[in-house]
Amino acid sequence: KTQSENMEVHHHPDLHHKRKNFKEYFLEFLMIFLAVTMGFFAENMRENISENNISKHMAENLYQEVYADFLVVQQKIAFRQDKMQQLSYFVSYVKDSSLTNISPRFSPSFFWSFIANSATYFQPKDGTINQLVNSGALRYFKSRKLQANIAALSVAIAEVRKRNDVEINFTEFQAREFAIKYFDFDWLEQVSQHGKLNTLQLVKMFHDDLPQLPSKIKNAQQFNKEEAASLASYFLLLVRSTVSAQYTDYLKANHELLQTLRNEYNLKNE
Predict the structure, then answer these.
(1) Which of 75, 86, 149, 198 is such that its CA lies 20 to 30 A from the CA of 264?
(2) Closest Cα partner for 66 from 239, 253, 246, 200?
(3) Comparing C-alpha atoms, which of 117, 4, 15, 127 is closest to residue 69?
(4) Averaged pLDDT score across all residues of the chain
(5) How many CB atoms within 10 Å of residue 81?
(6) Looking at residue 211, what is its pLDDT?
(7) Residues in the chain, pLDDT under 70
(8) Element (DSSP H or E) covering residue 178
(9) What is the number of alpha carbons within 13 Å of residue 93 lying toward its C-beta?
(10) What CA–CA distances, in Å, run from 112 to 82, 94, 228, 231, 245?
């Protein structure tokens, strides 16, 4: 009995709570709902901020690439304007002038017309666009106009490359063979200072200051004026139509994309 009296007495808690009223249940539900909703909005805001930062970074990279090509294509068009003038001169010269005592302008014109081709080709860059498309990151650009501008530029780039292939095919299989047979490469060796000046430097030099070195037409006895004029005339037509069609279309698509990027992301030319 004594042992029993000294034993600790355990009291069981009262598990029967007082029933809550409707307002208390509603308040708890409202607090949970607000917490979940605020968490959702916070996560959504975080994702939006992250996506906006990503799209801004990609827009800057795209703008720099496209703007650089905007400057390059204008330079190439200017070179082609010079090339067209030289082709026109070449055609008129071989039709009406002497092939024995040739003008100092003839060999520079021959060089411009049939040899200086790589300086006039525009090779557009699309590394950033390909990265956007292949990685699926194009979805970060929400503007439909911007997406349409990118698609239009991609089409213009493809057309430029196809046209370049046509010109390269002509220069490789027709213009080069003609130049090898008739062009005075000894004269070019002297003018280029035995290779110290590259094609672009020679093109600029011929534009500003014609070299006064004697030159000739190789194999002049086999030189057919009518065939030479026809070849140069066709090349002139090819170069001119490339500028008026593919390069001009590219320039327009390029300009529209740059304008949209400036409006959407407040970008400026560096």
Answers:
(1) 75
(2) 253
(3) 127
(4) 85
(5) 14
(6) 66
(7) 1-30, 33-53, 207-211, 270
(8) helix 176-182
(9) 21
(10) 8, 15, 15, 14, 22
Whether the CB-CB separation of 129 and 62 falls below 8 Å is answered with yes
- Measure the CA–CA gap between 267 and 21, rounded to whole angstroms: 59
Q: Dihedral, CA atoms, 12, 13, 16, 20, nearest 10 degrees? A: 180
Q: Quote the tokens at residue 192.
A: 């280029």
8 Å CB contact between 122 and 73: yes
Q: Are 257 and 128 in contact (CB under 8 A)?
A: no
Q: Measuring CA to CA, how many Å separate 203 from each of 35, 36, 144, 163, 187?
A: 71, 70, 43, 23, 15
Q: Residue 15 is inside which H or E element, if any?
A: none
What would the two tokens of residue 229 be? 């004029």
Contact 51, 140 (CB under 8 A): yes
Quick check: 172 and 117 in contact, CB under 8 A? no
- The pLDDT value recorded for residue 118 is 87
For the chain, the maximum distance between any two Cα atoms, rounded to a whole number of angstroms, is 145
